[in-house]
Structure formats: structure tokens, C-alpha cells
Write a structure and sequence with these properties.
The chain is mostly helical and 151 residues long. The chain has one domain (4-150): Rossmann fold (3-Layer(aba) Sandwich). It contains six helices and three strands; from the N terminus they run αααβαββαα. The chain has helices spanning 7-18, 35-40, 43-51, 71-77, 108-117, 119-150, and strands at 55-58, 81-85, 101-103. The protein has a three-stranded parallel sheet with strand order 1-2-3. It is globular and about 55 Å long. 14% of the residues are buried. Residues 1-5 have low confidence and may be disordered.
């Protein structure tokens, strides 16, 4: 959703669409105008697009802070290379350049070109992230049990 406090996404996409390199790629972008419009898009359509994507861009900035959104796990679980806006929250769980590619408006095109021209490296990062995500989920019940035992 690129509205009100998420206007920084519009700046990014305006630059994205003007790039000469981008015009040679197949891409899907949907800028929702309202929450209702976003919710009306079927999960099946979203899943098909995600399953066939090589790279997904994620923007995690909220009103006044960075967030780690659930869609990060959706992207990684599809073995899709995650491009994530530079933020501190994702670093609590994933390692930059090993599990995902951090980007900003100034370097996204350079990084995109690099990983599209180096598909083996892109796939290795996506695979590393997938393995790491599964490991996190495997360890999570034990961490909760440790916390419960302390209480």
C-alpha cells in the first residue's frame, strides 16, 4: 500500500519505472489505494506471483520505525531472493548479503543488476535464507518453553 505515511515507496517506484534496465524485465507491482482494495486481491493470485518470482522487494518502514513484516517469511519460504529496505529489525534474525539483500533508493538498481546477472549467487542467498528460516522455526518452540519454565 503506497499511501499517506508510505509515500516514500512512491518515490522509489517512480525511480524504478524510469530506469532503462528495468524496462527489460518482467515485474509485478501493485500499489493499493486502500486497505479494502488490498484485501480484495485473492491470496491465490498473490501466491502464484510469489511462487514464480525470482526477487521480491520489501518495504518495512512504518510510521516512525522499521518493522519485520510477516511477508518476509512468505518471501523466503518461496525460495525467492529478498531485497529488503535497509532497517535494523531484520538484522535481529537474518544476516545481510547472506540471507537477504539490503537496499535503498541509491543502490537498488546496481544490486538488482548484479543479482540478475549472477543467478547462482542469488539462488544461494535465497537457499541460505530458506534454511535459516526453517531453523528459526524449529528452534522457536524450545525458546518459548525456556521462557515458560522461567516463569
Amino acid at each position: 500500500m503506497a499511501a499517506h505515511y508510505r509515500d516514500y515507496r512512491n518515490v522509489f517506484f517512480n525511480k524504478f519505472f524510469k530506469s532503462q534496465y528495468i524496462s527489460s524485465l518482467n515485474y509485478f507491482v501493485r500499489l493499493w489505494k486502500s486497505r479494502e482494495e488490498m484485501l480484495s486481491y485473492s491470496y491465490e493470485n498473490f501466491y502464484k506471483i510469489m511462487k514464480n518470482s525470482e526477487i521480491a522487494f520489501n518495504f518495512s518502514k512504518s510510521v516512525d520505525c522499521d518493522q519485520l513484516k510477516g511477508r518476509v517469511a512468505e518471501i523466503i519460504s518461496n525460495k525467492t531472493l529478498l531485497f529488503e529496505t535497509e532497517n535494523d529489525q531484520i538484522k535481529n534474525f537474518f544476516i545481510p548479503e547472506k540471507h537477504y539483500i539490503p537496499f535503498n533508493q541509491n543502490n537498488f538498481e546496481e544490486k538488482l543488476k548484479y543479482y540478475l546477472n549472477n543467478p547462482n549467487e542469488a539462488q544461494n542467498i535465497a537457499s541460505n535464507a530458506y534454511k535459516h528460516l526453517n531453523q528459526l522455526y524449529d528452534e522457536l518452540p524450545y525458546e518459548w518453553q525456556k521462557l515458560i519454565n522461567k516463569i
